[in-house]
Recover the amino acids of this structure.
């Protein structure tokens, strides 16, 4: 089984048209010869040294990544930078690199559909509709059975890929949740849209202190904040299934946790009040 880089790019562009990407985004073929043969593809969230090494070790001819490697203009790809080393490693090992980012975010099915499926949400619709009713940023859905926020948080932690970050929530633990908005990746900018939609909870990543605090205090939905990588990893399974059905290639999915946060320690106790004298050391 084999195809070419050009054929793989055509299939990916058909599924995730580059014109759907945000103007600031950088999607498409980053490294590779369109005429080169492709027998094995590795799907990853991040193109980092670890996933490149994984691809080389697996004999992958093409990496399909969600996050762009070269988002901003560069004047050098020398090996003195880690991105330069990645480019050199890809070329030396005849591995191509393709990126589908915000065009995959708004696709139907796209990144947020895969996230919604992990929670079992039904009756999906875009959180922020796009140019047509089917696609757009984020998804809104309904839980088949309503449950308290505490149970939904535990469910999210159990169905999303394991990370040191885990899943944290803001809101009344006993609040009953039925309608849920989700956004794979950083969904901070869609807090107002989730509130306007009247959903009971919003699951995304990279929520900041003040916007989250103000959103909850303002009567908005309960918030669930997961690791960025974990909210986008589910999409890789859908991507891989599409590539297997469309191209005559072997497709692998990376489960390497590329979230930058690698340790987590839960708080064990609050500090004593300032007027509490310190305890005398034991003799």
């Amino acid at each position: 089984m084999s195809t070419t880089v050009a054929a793989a790019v055509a299939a990916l562009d058909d599924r995730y048209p580059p014109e759907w990407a945000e103007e600031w985004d950088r999607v498409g073929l980053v490294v590779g010869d369109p005429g080169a043969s492709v027998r094995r593809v590795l799907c990853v969230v991040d193109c980092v040294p670890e996933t490149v090494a994984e691809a080389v070790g697996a004999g992958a001819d093409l990496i399909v990544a969600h996050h762009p490697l070269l988002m901003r203009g560069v004047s050098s790809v020398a090996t003195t930078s880690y991105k330069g080393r990645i480019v050199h490693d890809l070329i030396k090992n005849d591995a191509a690199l393709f990126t589908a980012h915000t065009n995959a975010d708004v696709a139907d099915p796209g990144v947020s559909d895969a996230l919604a499926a992990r929670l079992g949400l039904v009756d999906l619709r875009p959180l922020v509709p796009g140019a047509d009713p089917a696609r757009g940023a984020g998804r809104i859905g309904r839980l088949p059975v309503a449950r308290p926020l505490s149970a939904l948080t535990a469910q999210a932690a159990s169905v999303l890929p394991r990370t040191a970050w885990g899943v944290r929530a803001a809101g009344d633990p006993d609040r009953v949740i039925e309608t849920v908005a989700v956004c794979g990746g950083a969904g901070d900018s869609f807090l107002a849209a989730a509130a306007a939609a009247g959903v009971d909870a919003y699951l995304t990543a990279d929520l900041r202190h003040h916007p989250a605090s103000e959103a909850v205090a303002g009567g908005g939905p309960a918030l669930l904040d997961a690791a960025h990588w974990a909210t986008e990893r589910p999409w890789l399974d859908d991507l891989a299934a599409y590539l297997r059905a469309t191209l005559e290639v072997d497709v692998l999915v990376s489960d390497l946790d590329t979230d930058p946060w690698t340790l987590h320690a839960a708080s064990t106790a609050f500090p004593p009040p300032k007027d509490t004298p310190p305890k005398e050391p034991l003799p």
In short: Residues 228-246 form the longest helix (19 residues).
